[in-house]
Amino acid sequence: MKQPLLAFNDKGIYCAQANVYLDPWRPVTNAIITHGHSDHSRSGHKNYITHHLNVPIIKHRLGDINVTGKDWGETFSVNGVTFSLHPAGHIVGSAQVRVEYKGEVWVFTGDYKTEDDGLATPYEVVKCDTFITECTFGLPAFKWLPQQEVFNDINTWWAQNKAEGKTSVLFGYTLGKAQRLLKHLDTDIGKIYTHGAVENMTEVIRPMVDLPPTTLITRDTKKEEIAGNMVIAPPSAHGTPWIRKMTPYVTGAASGWMAFRGARRRRAIDRGFVLSDHCDWQSLLESIKATGCEKVISTHGYSEIFSKYLREQGYDARTEHTQYEGETDEGETEQKDQREKEGGES
């Protein structure tokens, strides 16, 4: 039986011909990394290859690593296998990996979204024979509104809170979501303050994209300064002593999971905004069709349900288990990542 070009094993997604792993979750010699979230870029690998925009991000998170940056579409070969990176649209520097060997083409998406968020390089359709896709939100119930509508709601919420003399505290993952929120907030309403983890990651990303000014909250920041303004913080800051300085405050969270009834209540959040850095159901289907692929491998998310639907549509579809988490409470393993606390108060 012919060996597949990419196979899933206990370390990650493996190309045996090149002895290269894609987003491995255990230490390996050669790793191609799609993006900077900690479920996809882990420590311990000997050699890292990623898009050059992602290099400073993973260095910030992983420390001193041996990493090589590539441009979009730049090809590089290992033992006859040709690799290239293409925009995934998920967060800044996020890539899909195209793998070609003897005329056979596979594409691994990592995490991706097709809506242009104004920060990440927009998603690019890459033709292939086999498509490895995440399906974090692979249910018909997930249908995203255009982001401008969501940001109109967020800015209206902020203005209303300010009129009532309350500070707006908006939770979003430190890498990706926080910068997307910053990009689209209306600074005519007020100033934007940040938790230390958000500020530190934003400073890494500022040279790559245009973002509004932010003010780091420190031990010396007075509550009166923050009043009525916007605070961007990671979800892990909710319920900690750090947030008391915002009183009186109103909390909000931006996540695809806010589409579920009860999600806001379970997280003790005052207001939920449905905003995801992943594809919704329709975008997943459109992306797969656009590749022209015949085979689809679904990973993290509603993979079994999604694969079953694809088979009904005539695709050769199956699932594979990975250690990727998609968009979850632990989407960046925040409680485990000590870098999240840099510059912030406990």
From TrEMBL:
Basic and acidic residues bias (residue ranges): 333-346
- Which superkingdom does the taxonomy of this entry point to? Bacteria
Q: Say which species the protein is native to.
A: Flavobacterium suaedae
Is the keyword Lipid metabolism in the record?
no
Which GO molecular function, any one, fits this protein according to its record?
Answer: ligase activity
Do you know which SUPFAM superfamilies this protein is assigned to?
Answer: Metallo-hydrolase/oxidoreductase
The reply to whether Ligase figures as a keyword in the UniProt entry is yes
Which NCBIfam families does the record cross-reference, listed alphabetically?
Answer: Xnuc_lig_assoc
- List the residue ranges of the region (Disordered): 317-346
Record keywords, A-Z: Ligase
What InterPro entries has UniProt attached to this entry?
Answer: MBL (IPR050698), RibonucZ/Hydroxyglut_hydro (IPR036866), Xnuc_lig_assoc (IPR026360)
* Protein's name in the database: DNA ligase-associated DEXH box helicase
